[in-house]
Design a protein that fits this description.
One of its GO terms (molecular function) is DNA binding. Pfam families: UTRA. This is UbiC transcription regulator-associated domain-containing protein. InterPro entries: Bact_HTH_transcr_reg, Chorismate_lyase_/UTRA_dom_sf, UTRA. It comes from Sphaerisporangium melleum. The protein has 197 residues and is of the alpha+beta class. It has a single domain, classed as Chorismate lyase-like (Chorismate lyase, 3-Layer(aba) Sandwich), CATH 3.40.1410. The protein is 18% helix and 35% strand. It has 6 helices and 8 strands. It has a 6-stranded antiparallel beta sheet with strand order 2-3-4-7-6-5. Strands 1-8 form a two-stranded parallel sheet. Strand 3 and strand 4 form a beta hairpin. The longest helix has 8 residues. The protein is globular. It starts with 20 loop residues before the first strand and ends in a 12-residue tail after the last strand. The N terminus is likely disordered.
């Protein structure tokens, strides 16, 4: 708390975030190709990364995920949800979504982290990356997100939905990343070869 210069009541001073990490948009190809996007980003910033798998299994697709995967809202999809930590502070909940008509019964349904990487497992199933689209939204957190990310009352989240399509135009992988807003900076970089006013 600090005194109000006008002589009124004390003004609460927001607590400084314990850690701040960067999430570059669009995702750099060299980072995207790494075994762990978050670990590569964090280590480049001198931050010790950590991760915990929270859930692997089917769940109904919400509106944004359903649209990105090209399925009806409520359709059962495969979810792989993990908590990402920086210096032991929870900073993101990242969930990969996959269509069950394409990936049921594959290595993607196995519990735990996939080695050497999720990207390698997708490619081993015959899908080659074509292009991706990323959408960023700021919003109030859900009760689950508030509790998992240890958010203060009134703290918002930033949600990034990245839809990855293969060379045939099939939506293959949707990554929803929910970031604690006060613990992130989002540098926006120009895509190589598209530097125009």
């Amino acid at each position: 708390m600090r005194s109000d210069p006008a002589g009124g009541d004390a003004v609460p001073v927001p607590e400084r975030p314990r850690v701040v990490v960067r999430r570059t948009l669009p995702t750099e190809p060299a980072i995207r190709a790494s075994a762990s996007l978050f670990a590569a980003e964090a280590e480049r910033q001198g931050v010790r990364p950590g991760r915990r798998m929270l859930y692997v299994g089917p769940e109904p697709a919400g509106d944004r995920v359903a649209a990105a995967l090209g399925v009806e809202p409520g359709t059962e999809v495969l979810a792989r949800r993990k908590l990402l930590l920086a210096e032991d502070v929870p900073v993101r909940v990242a969930t990969s979504f996959f269509r069950l008509d394409l990936f049921a019964g594959t290595a993607l349904t196995a519990p735990g982290f996939i080695l050497p990487s999720l990207q390698a497992a997708i490619e081993a199933l015959g899908h080659r990356f074509g292009h991706a689209e990323e959408e960023l939204t700021a919003r109030v957190p859900t009760a689950f997100e508030r509790a998992t990310l240890l958010l203060a009352p009134g703290e918002w989240v930033v949600q990034i939905v990245r839809a990855g399509l293969d060379t045939e135009g099939t939506p293959v992988h949707v990554l929803e990343t929910v970031c604690a807003a006060s613990r992130h900076v989002f540098p926006i970089r120009q895509v190589a070869g598209a530097d125009e006013f």
